[in-house]
UniProtKB/TrEMBL annotation:
GO annotation (BP), single: regulation of DNA-templated transcription
Record Gene3D superfamilies: 3.40.50.2300
CDD domains in UniProt: LuxR_C_like (cd06170)
Every HTH luxR-type domain range: 147-212
Pfam families registered for this protein in UniProt: GerE
Protein name: DNA-binding response regulator
Keyword Plastid recorded: no
Matching SUPFAM superfamilies: C-terminal effector domain of the bipartite response regulators, CheY-like
Keyword Nucleotidyltransferase belongs to the record: no
Species: Janibacter melonis
Keywords, comma-separated and alphabetical: DNA-binding, Transcription, Transcription regulation
InterPro entries assigned: CheY-like_superfamily, Sig_transdc_resp-reg_C-effctor, Tscrpt_reg_LuxR_C, WalR-like
Lineage: Bacteria, Bacillati, Actinomycetota, Actinomycetes, Micrococcales
GO molecular function per UniProt: DNA binding
């Protein structure tokens, strides 16, 4: 058997339609170049070249949106396996992933090293469900790299909730999409409003629009050989 250093890195595609989120995840994985290589970062939620594994980031996606994304993804012959990357690793989210043919569910709260290990195991043929350990950071000190509103002081979870507010969802729909209670959603919104300096949903939407809380529907990023992201747009 060849030594571990001779094993080719697992080729990964990171999918999320928010540019800052997708590139942040790619930057986190870049610390493990001998084990994983991010071959594509795609904000169109479509794999355009062969990869070993797709890391599907469910940031700010409604359940219906995730259904559509995964149906398209799993019918793509260029993506052999896929894993759901989400905050809530629950019986519901695991059942949801299995129903769509995904090979695993990994919490966003796990450290980068454990994420890479999980991706390697999935690539080797295992089905992996990896929730966060109690001692791992959850929201205030996440292991991943960037998100909308980070510079303004929002936590990743607050960012996701506000992104869904900007998209027009009510609290009940947000709770359903994020596997949270309505009261928990309200708590996140109140905390986010204090940070944003707004008092109403209308003000929050306007603030979000001003701070790029909209998806990157016109941009597509691929990582070149030098690992510098290059931007492409549809014609």
């Amino acid at each position: 058997m060849s030594p571990a250093t001779d094993v080719e890195p697992v080729r990964i595609a990171v999918l999320n339609d928010y540019e800052v989120v997708a590139l942040g995840v790619a930057a986190m994985l870049a610390d493990y170049p001998r084990r994983v290589r991010v071959a594509e970062v795609n904000v169109y939620l479509h794999v355009s070249e062969p990869v070993d594994l797709v890391l599907y980031d469910a940031f700010a996606r409604t359940k219906s949106g995730v259904h559509l994304d995964l149906d398209l993804l799993m019918s793509n012959p260029l993506a052999s396996r896929a894993v759901l990357y989400t905050w809530e690793v629950t019986a519901q989210s695991v059942e949801f992933a299995e129903a769509h043919g995904l090979s695993g569910v990994v919490s966003k709260s796990v450290g980068a090293g454990r994420l890479v290990e999980a991706l390697e195991r999935i690539h080797a043929g295992e089905r992996v469900v990896l929730p966060a350990d109690p001692g791992e950071p959850h929201d205030d000190q996440p292991s991943w790299n960037n998100w909308p509103g980070k510079a303004q002081g929002l936590t990743p979870r607050q960012s996701e909730i506000i992104t869904l507010v900007v998209a027009g969802l009510d609290n009940r729909d947000i709770a359903s999409s994020c596997y949270l209670s309505t009261n928990t959603v309200k708590s996140y919104i109140r905390a986010a409003y204090r940070t944003m300096g707004v008092r109403s949903r209308t003000q929050a939407v306007l603030w979000g629009v001003d701070h790029d809380f909209r998806n990157s529907s016109r941009s597509r990023f691929m990582l070149a050989d030098d690992d510098e992201p290059t931007s492409c747009t549809r014609g």
